[in-house]
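Lab manual, section 2.4: Encoding a predicted structure.

Procedure: take the sequence of the chain (258 residues), apply the prediction step described in section 2.3, and record the output as C-alpha cells. A sample record is shown.
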Amino acid sequence: MKRTSLILTLCLIISSAFAQDLSKFKKENFIQESDTLKYRILYPENFDANKNYPVLFFLHGRGESGNDNEKQLTHGSKMFLSDDFRKNFPSIIIFPQCAEESYWANVEIETINTKRFFTFQKDGEPTKSMGLLLKLTDQILSQTYADKSRIYVGGLSMGGMGTFEILRRKPKTFAAAFAICGGDNIANVKKYQNVPLWIFHGGLDDVVNPQLSYSVYRELRKLGNEPKYTIYPKANHNSWDSAFAEPELLPWLFRNKK
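Recorded output:
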C-alpha cells in the first residue's frame, strides 16, 4: 500500500509540475467579427518586444479540437518548454486550436469498414478555422518583434494536413516546415515547392495512409525540391513521438531562413 501511495504521489507531483509549465503558454483569443480562434502563445524567456524572434505555429491533430484552449497542448508542447530549447532557440511558439466543427485542411473524409479515405481539395476556400489562422498569422507577422525571415509551421495528423494547407495558401511566408502523418492533393504541391520540408510518417499507420505523405514527398522531388523524409517502419498513427525525439528536428528547422 505504501509503495502504491508513493507512486500516486509522485504521479501527482509530476502532473502538477507539467501543468505549471503549460501555464507558461499564455491563453489568447483571436476574434474576427462573430468568429473566434483560441490559441496559446509561449514567449521566450526575458522577452523583449524591441528584439526580433522566430515564430513557430504548431497545428494539433483532430483529437485535440475544441474550444477549451488546452487540449491543443497535449502533443508537442513539452519540446518547447525544455531548458535546452528555451536557452538555444529563443522564439515565439503558437498553438492555435481548431474548432470541433471545423478542420485545418480542405479535405473530404469518408470511413468505410473502419478505414478512412481522404480526398484533398485543389484550391477552394479555406475552412473557417484555417481562415482564422491565416488572419492570425498576418496579425502576428505585423508585430515588430516577429522576425519575418524566420517564420515556421508544423503539425501532426490533421495538423500535418493543415501544414501543407497553410503552406500552399502562404507559400512566401514560411522559412521551413515539418508535417507528421499528413497528406495533400499533389496538384497543390507546386505552390510550396520551394519551402524546406521534413515529412514524417509511420509505416503501419492505419488511420492516415503513409502513401499520402510519400506522394507529397515524391511530387516535391519531381519539382526539384529535396525534402527530408523519415518513415518509421514499425510505427502506427503515432509517429509524432518518434519525430519529436529526433535530435535534429528543431536545430534543422531553426537553421532555415528566408
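Check your result against the sample. Residues 26-255 form a domain with the Rossmann fold fold (CATH 3.40.50.1820).
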